[in-house]
Amino acid sequence: MIKLLGVAIIAGLFFAESDLLAIEAAEVKLPTKPTPSTCPTHIQCWTGWFDRDDPSGTGDWETLSDLRRENPGKICPEPGSMEVTTLSGLSVGTAGEVIFRNDLTDGFVCRNQDQSDRTCNDYRVRFCCPPQYCGEEVTVCWTRWYDRDDPSGTGDWEPLSNLRSENPGQICDNPLYIEAVTTGNNPVLATSTGQTFHV
């Protein structure tokens, strides 16, 4: 038997700068309930693209050490992942070249000597990092907290469809993240309560 959620849950939604105007227009009242003091560490976004080298010489060397040296403070200490494309937008797999390095330790290296035509494409890289490394083009924020139901009856139901209909214009069309915590003076992340969730 599934254990029902025994505490009310508040949901906070993360959204992009373009959706901030809708919130401001709705004159959202600031919540009086306590919220977690730090942003969850799993929230990530993409940095801007880096293209420090071209395939002249020995190849295209987009090494992490060189990128960090040339772009101080723009790449997080431990990126979650790295995306690589040609300048025209082709993925590494689609470009079909032999790649010497493609990892989060060294970065990306395409050597001309490994290619049948002896020339690499020109590549660019970007990294998955916390929002403070994503530059001005990505501005994100949390909505206020929502608590539309209590754990009576069949449980605590906080479905996005109901939250949107009950709070028109306050929740963006494409939220990036959702966070759920218990209500009260010491909020606990829902995932840390030990309870089983239907959704």
Structural class: alpha+beta
Name the poorly predicted regions.
Answer: 1-41
Q: Please describe the biggest sheet, giving its number of strands, its sense, and whether it closes into a barrel.
A: 3 strands, antiparallel
What does the average pLDDT come to? 78
Q: Tell me the strand percentage band.
A: 15-25%
Number of strands: 9
* Rg calculated over all Cα atoms: 22 Å
Question: How many helices in DSSP terms?
Answer: 4
Helix-residue proportion: 10-25%
Order of helices and strands: EHEEHEHEEEEHE
Inertia-based shape = elongated
Kindly report the spatial arrangement of strands forming the biggest sheet.
8-1-9
Q: State the separation between the terminal residues, measured CA to CA.
A: 15 Å
Features:
alpha+beta; 4 helices; 199 residues
